[in-house]
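Q: My labmate handed me this sequence with no annotations at all. I'd like to see what the chain might look like in three dimensions before we decide whether it's worth expressing. Could you predict it?
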Amino acid sequence: MSCLLVRILQSDAAYVPLDPEAPGFIAAEVMSQCGLKYCAVTNGLVQQFQASLTKYITMEICGELPKFRVTLIQIEPRPVAETEQVRAQSADVPEHKGLAYVLHTSGTTGAPKTVRVPHKCILPNIVDLRSLFQINADDVVFLASPLTFDPSVVDIFLALSSGAQLLIVPTVMKKIPNRLARLLFKDHRTTVLQVTPTLLMRFGHRILKQDVLSSGSSVRVLALGGEACPSPALLSTWRHEDNKTCIFNIYGITEVSCWACCYKIPESLLLSINLPSSVPLGAPLMDTVVEVRDDHGCIISEGEGQVFIGGEDRVCLLDGEDTAVPGTMRATGDWVNAKGDQLYYLGRRDRIIKRNGKRLNLDSLQQLILSLPQVQACAVGLYEGLRLLAFVVSSAAGDQMAASTFPSGSAQLGADATSLILKQLSLLLPSHSIPDTLVLVPELSLTPHGKVDMDALMRTYRRQRDFRFSQPDDLKQTLLTLWQEALGLPGNVNIDEQSNFLFAGGDSLKVLRLREDILTYMGVSSLNLLEVILDGTFSDVLQHLTQLLPAEESSASTFESKKHPAGPLSGIHGKRAHKSIETEQEEKPDVKVVRRASEVMEVNTRKADRTENLQVLGGKDLSRPISMSLSQSWSSDTGRCVDATPVILLRANQRSDVPKATVFIGSHSHRVQALDLVTGNLLWERVLGDRIEASAAVSRCGSLIVVGCYDGCVYFLCSDSGETQWLFKTGDAVKSSPAVDPVSGLVVVGSHDGHVYALNPQLQLCVWKHHCGGGAVFSSPHLQATHRRLYAASLGGHLLCLDLDSGHVMWSYCRDTPFFSSPNFFCGHVVIGSVDGNICCFSDTGELLWQFLTEGPVFSSPCFVPEQQKLLCGSHDGRLYCLNCSDGSLVWTFQTTGKVYSTPCVFDGFAAGRRGVLVGVASTDGTIWILDARDGQIVTSHTLPGEVFSSLVVWDNTLVIGCRNDYVYCLNLKSQLKDI
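A: Here is what I predict for the chain of 980 residues:
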């Protein structure tokens, strides 16, 4: 590949490295921003490349280069509606004159950002570092970074410009430290090593001292960059006293590619008794200007400030910039302390936080933990912005280099190491700086660029937390362990059940820590827990937790007299042991959730939990001498347009045979309303962080309302009060309606960040997430709980079938047009509407069985008439179509007076006085249509005073729907005898 780069540069062209693992839409945007003409693709990746990009670009294979095992592909943007933004960007592609290469960010937090690097910007780096490192033809330079990370440019051209060897290893080898060490230091005798500190630390103390920095090491130059440099004290523990390797600290940012400063660490400093706490960034490299500015933008020579980097020729072009302005200075976001003529790295601004009212530098804390002899590697971060975590690779575990799962025999080792490390930290640090949790890991997760992957570590924390919670024999033992840890007591110290936490040696900070530990490890939520810890005894806290947990989870507590069998999750708390199982079952209310597309979910009943189509009781489709009419029962003003579809929660009423029915609906006014279905009275109202277009869902236990919001959050609200119980943040707006698994209680929802998320509301964690192949996830996922399958679709034209429990792909299908419609499933058929006008039907293995072409885009979602083997779906051509499920043939069609955006619903007319199955659907002009499901003949209609993009939800003879005149309406369907 390096040969191709040289030939590209010799032809006065620039090269753009693309990440083969990146989603297709990101690669397509980068191609458009750069005006990319040709791609050289490794032969083994051609099929994957075409599959991920065929929807965004037109590709033509120009030929193969057999010697390099590469296929050359010509690129042209595809002019389709969904790539409008890409075309707008590519219409004004900047000139590439004088450019060497173009890099791009990952795009995980938005559109990918491009950095176009001129020859005159990167060349001074190569020339200066070649001189500083004294590279010659005898050197072996290891290409540690992927081509998408700009240090790779330095590695490649340091070697090629000096006649040195460039050592390239498969990516997988970098993940196996022992084999990589043998390859680098024994097989190929590497002399120049430019790596991140985290990648280096993966070798472990033994390999570092015996191979990398041994007395006879082949490594002549070790350049550490991309992350904060380890302290001199830590570096000195890695090297043999006779080691002669020159160690450099290099610093820079991609926006001024590649390096800006370099500091050669004197050997005398590493051998000194009095070692400084940090390594300076060093002097600016050739043609580079480095400034430190305070909060007011003034250049300072002493004190703390932000680093700015630039120079006359050291200027890259970012995103849409078309002219390199000489002398441009780029803000780095990095803060340093200027002392004399040296700069000492403090960290990113967001890594300097306030905790309990006191300042804490997470990077400084990380360095201090690294200095402990029991610690080989460490990363410090905040979990959900609150909980201070320290991920630690212990010296013993690091040398073993365990795999990604936790070693089975490491429990005692982990407990001993954790206790010792925390004890040492308590002697070195003030209380606000001590981590809430020490997470022992076999190794630190890395990004493809070799830096610490904090997101992956946080996922590890969640897994380890769940693993830990599953181990204790009972609730009492779990609380006992957390209580002892919070007080810093050994595990063999007895706790008096009548003791108070404060009197036992706790303080306010330890109380907060214990509260967070309990909520985190036990997956419960409590507003009163803090008060119970402060005022109550150990016994009181245990009793409080027993009441919080569902009965089957708290059954092991000492407050219960016998084990309870496993059962469905319950929303009823506070069960005590003296109540029999039968009594508890009798007190559990029946919970039914009625949603769009005639879906009803029954949970917490004495029958098995199930999801089925609503109220289709059969009955003979006989003509009746009656007429039907719709009349308004009530309406509620939400403040702005209502595009969301209502959801109805019905709970058994112990005082009456009539269930308590509540309507939940969101609005573009940011409001969520809870309304009494019968009277329309407002029960509660919440204002969320942004617009609400997504329909709400109800948790398995019936105690939580789940709704997505334009602010990117999924809100879990108490169904009785509207209070927020949990908030989960995705990467973009949530317009998808959540789906609830009646078996496990998982809540699955899509986001405009392109992912579907499986959330556990009880444990308040994300169990898994999956990227849907490109494009936002607007449509709502559909659960097939019996076979543990999930169907999801994206605006990128991808339809996926995922394993509900793991998120793994079972099959996928892609077409060139977006899916706004939501998939539905019935009797082995998966049906979805497409913007190209087709209603598509797939088998449960992903085979396209048939498709029916309407005369307009299909945004409506399909609904089934189970006993008639029919499906219903609307189209923007204004019609509602009834199709045969087996072959897609047309049964009947009904022409409305507007477009059909909403999802139809089917229901039995018996409650309204008519036998047979009826169909309800809304057209965008505000008309509500009731049709006979047998032949599509109109039964009655009613027009609302505004456009309608919401869908009908029906219970008995009551219909609820939202309207764009700011109101949600409840209509009654009634019948009367016709005059004869």
